[in-house]
């Protein structure tokens, strides 16, 4: 493309719509318009002008607002589809890995689920194509902003006071007519009073106010970019932690993603309102729904191992603090927060058995198996003892005659025991699960009867750390500043020229709030006796309305 | 005229450099994000080639094992539980291969995930395992290695670096090959 020389002699970059110097329309299309297009001051959007190398072509692609809007639409549609089936993190599978999650979608949702998983909708924010799209949005924001900001900034910085008549009379606010000789001075005085920046050149005047409002969109794009940068950091290890820790009463566990820290659960409490005394106001609700939760609380002790201590070595742990974690009252330490999220009540902890003679029902004594620490042998005295041969916390059946456990959790404990009594010194083998006893080696004389159980509660805690919050906050703040800058402030300009024949030309422009502009102009007009102005946009609209009405009348007649 | 031309080409070249720089920077950022998101799923902190985190555990006989003590030798670190069928299945093969490679500077340490002494001891006795077995009571070694599925085997080479991370069941040939990989030369 060639550079464009305006009739005023100024050489403009290719693609310019309005001459940078005098404001004449440079294209045929623009010349035929009744009003000039003042977006970007009629400058050449840089990317439209060069279309040569591959880099330029990629650049131009991202510079397009249409492409940017397209990306946003695709992202919105994808995010919407991502809400139709549950995301992988909320899917409940017994053993969590890629294969089981894939199978879950196929089993529960059929072909649609398969496709959903295949396309990566099950983990939308982690899908490569989604990340690529967000990245493309970031590129689009940066490229499109640069391409528009740079020429606009240059153009506004170098604007001339004297513009060609064809520029002025195509502005929305325009006036032409006789005026007194001192009108320019008086207009200058009044405009300055209204806080305009006034520049004079020969017989012309340019008054300008609130130019910074034009940078609003670019400022808010910077905010968005910072925000996206913060979101990107979340994917980098160390910046963002969101882990779950299931901990039973009495257990001490390493806190995931918090090296050197350990948590011990002393007690989990689940309280409901009684509906009596001071809590009477809950009575009605309790009657209706059965029970109303009052408190979920895990009493914990936080430990820390010394700096040089290694994972696995817990003997040098130091008590840091004790705290009761309640809903929305997390335990906080070293940038981490531990929240009360979930619980399981009454998991088996210990079971008590009675060794009895089947025939006489005579008891030889009781013993308790601590499921956390089962022992090899339980001596009941008087020559009776029970050896524990195997413990299967979550008994799931036999495989090749061998008892199996499905999980390490005591959901369905099974015990393989050998019972010794003075009567049976060789011992009798028995396999016991809840409400069932198997005697694999033939009929026994003795049996174990279940006496009772102790239980404990399990707390589901969430460990959170987010180092990206300040960055996200900053991004959000800058975004809001940009929005306010562009929305609540306007860039207002007036051009006034006094021609040799005494006729005064006046044009006005603002990027928004034409009402405010007119109010300013009314004050200046009155004070400086300027010719009356017209709002050409309104004129055009009126004319079109009139034409339409006429056409309709014509239709009726025919 | 020539001066103007050189000015023009200079300007063009600068623009090309500028645009390439901005675009490649952004593409790099996207690539890095994707890389992180993909690797985050398996092992968040550990990657092949990283120094294997040191730890200290006592085995069932009460013998302390510190990873850094095995510098110069290979360590076959197997995380397991009695409820995990593939873990149980691969144990005998591990034991056979351990006996082959023991003399050649390959150590096996089986780390149980927080089960009771009784369960682990009776399991070891039943299978007659000859390599040391330790229990990670507080799950802190598991956390340090970010172990998710079981079994997971972390192969540590004589330099103390992670040679390979294997998730899922291994065949005897696999185990043999892996031990070969971490055998000191």
Element layout with pairings:
The complex is a heterodimer of chains A (558) and B (185).
Chain A: E1 4-5, E2 11-12, H1 28-31, H2 46-49, H3 54-63, H4 65-81, H5 98-118, H6 128-157, H7 165-168, E3 173-178, H8 183-193, E4 197-201, E5 204-209, H9 216-234, E6 240-248, E7 252-254, E8 261-272, H10 283-289, E9 293-304, E10 318-326, E11 331-333, E12 336-357, E13 363-370, E14 377-381, E15 384-392, E16 395-399, E17 402-405, E18 414-420, E19 428-433, E20 436-438, E21 446-466, H11 469-488, E22 492-498, E23 503-510, H12 514-528, E24 534-535, H13 536-557
Antiparallel strand pairs in A: 1-2, 3-23, 3-24, 4-5, 5-22, 6-21, 7-8, 8-9, 9-10, 11-12, 12-13, 12-21, 14-15, 15-18, 16-17, 18-19, 19-20, 22-23
Helix pairs in contact in A: 3-6, 4-6, 6-9, 8-12, 9-11
Chain B: H1 2-40, E1 56-58, E2 64-66, E3 74-80, H2 85-101, E4 106-113, H3 117-127, E5 133-136, H4 140-144, E6 152-156, E7 162-167, H5 172-182
Parallel strand pairs in B: 3-4, 4-5
Antiparallel strand pairs in B: 1-2, 3-6, 6-7
Helix pairs in contact in B: 2-5
């Amino acid at each position: 493309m060639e550079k464009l020389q305006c009739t005023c002699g100024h050489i403009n970059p290719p693609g310019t719509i309005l001459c940078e110097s005098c404001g004449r329309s440079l294209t045929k299309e623009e010349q035929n318009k009744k009003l000039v297009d003042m977006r970007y001051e009629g400058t050449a959007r840089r990317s439209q002008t060069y279309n040569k190398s591959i880099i330029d072509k990629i650049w131009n692609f991202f510079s397009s607002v249409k492409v940017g809007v397209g990306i946003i639409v695709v992202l919105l549609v994808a995010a919407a589809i991502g809400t139709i089936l549950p995301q992988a993190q909320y899917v409940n599978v017994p053993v969590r890995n890629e294969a089981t999650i894939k199978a879950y979608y196929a089993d529960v949702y059929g072909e649609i689920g398969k496709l959903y998983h295949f396309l990566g909708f099950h983990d939308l924010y982690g899908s490569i194509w989604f990340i690529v799209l967000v990245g493309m949005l970031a590129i689009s924001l940066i490229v499109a902003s640069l391409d528009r900001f740079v020429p606009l900034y240059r153009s506004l910085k170098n604007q001339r006071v004297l513009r060609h008549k064809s520029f002025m009379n195509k502005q929305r606010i325009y006036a032409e007519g006789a005026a007194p000789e001192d009108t320019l001075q008086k207009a200058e005085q009044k405009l300055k009073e209204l806080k305009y920046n006034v520049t004079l050149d020969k017989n012309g005047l340019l008054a300008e106010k609130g130019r910074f409002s034009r940078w609003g969109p670019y400022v808010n794009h910077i905010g968005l970019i910072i925000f996206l940068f913060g979101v990107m950091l979340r994917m980098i290890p160390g910046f963002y932690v969101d882990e779950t820790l299931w901990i039973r009463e009495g257990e001490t566990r390493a806190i995931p993603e918090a090296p050197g820290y350990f948590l011990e659960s002393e007690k989990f409490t689940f309280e409901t309102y009684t509906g009596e005394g001071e809590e009477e106001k809950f009575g009605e609700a309790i009657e209706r729904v059965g029970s109303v939760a009052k408190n979920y609380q895990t009493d914990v002790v936080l430990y820390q191992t010394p700096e040089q201590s290694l994972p696995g070595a817990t003997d040098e742990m130091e008590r840091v603090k004790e705290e009761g974690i309640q809903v929305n009252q997390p335990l906080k330490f070293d940038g981490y927060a531990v929240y009360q999220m979930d619980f399981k009540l009454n998991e088996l902890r210990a079971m008590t058995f009675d060794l009895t003679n089947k025939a006489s029902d005579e008891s030889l004594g009781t013993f308790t198996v601590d499921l956390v620490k089962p022992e090899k042998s339980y001596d009941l005295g008087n020559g009776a003892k029970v050896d524990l041969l195997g413990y299967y916390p979550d008994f799931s059946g036999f495989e090749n005659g061998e008892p199996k456990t499905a999980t390490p959790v005591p959901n369905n404990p099974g015990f393989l025991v050998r019972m010794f009594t003075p009567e049976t010194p060789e011992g009798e083998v028995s396999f016991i699960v809840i409400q069932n006893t198997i005697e694999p080696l033939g009929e026994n004389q003795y049996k174990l009867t279940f006496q009772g159980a102790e239980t404990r509660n399990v707390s589901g805690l969430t460990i959170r750390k987010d180092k990206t919050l300040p960055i996200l906050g900053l991004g959000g703040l800058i975004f809001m500043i940009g929005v306010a800058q562009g929305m609540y402030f306007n860039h207002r300009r007036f051009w006034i020229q006094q021609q040799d024949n005494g006729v005064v030309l006046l044009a006005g422009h603002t990027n928004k709030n034409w009402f405010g502009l007119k109010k300013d102009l009314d004050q200046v007009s009155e004070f400086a006796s300027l010719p009356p102005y017209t709002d050409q946009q309104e004129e055009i609209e009126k004319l079109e309305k009139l034409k339409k009405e006429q056409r309709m009348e014509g239709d009726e007649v025919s | 005229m020539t001066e103007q031309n050189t000015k023009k080409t200079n300007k063009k070249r600068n623009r090309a450099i500028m645009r390439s720089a901005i675009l490649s920077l952004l593409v790099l950022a996207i690539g890095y994000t994707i890389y992180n998101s993909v690797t985050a799923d398996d092992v968040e902190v550990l990657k092949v080639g990283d120094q294997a985190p040191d730890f200290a555990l006592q085995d069932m006989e009460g013998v302390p094992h510190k990873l850094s003590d095995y510098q110069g030798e290979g360590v076959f670190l197997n995380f397991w539980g009695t409820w995990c069928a593939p873990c149980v299945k691969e144990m005998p093969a591990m034991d056979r291969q351990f006996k082959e490679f023991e003399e050649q500077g390959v150590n096996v340490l089986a780390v149980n995930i927080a089960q009771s002494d009784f369960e682990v001891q009776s399991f070891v006795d039943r299978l007659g395992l000859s390599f040391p077995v330790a229990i990670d009571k507080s799950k802190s070694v598991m956390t340090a290695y970010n172990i998710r599925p079981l079994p997971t085997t972390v192969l540590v080479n004589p330099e103390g670096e992670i040679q390979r991370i294997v998730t899922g069941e291994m065949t005897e040939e696999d185990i043999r090959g892996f031990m070969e990989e971490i055998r000191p030369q």
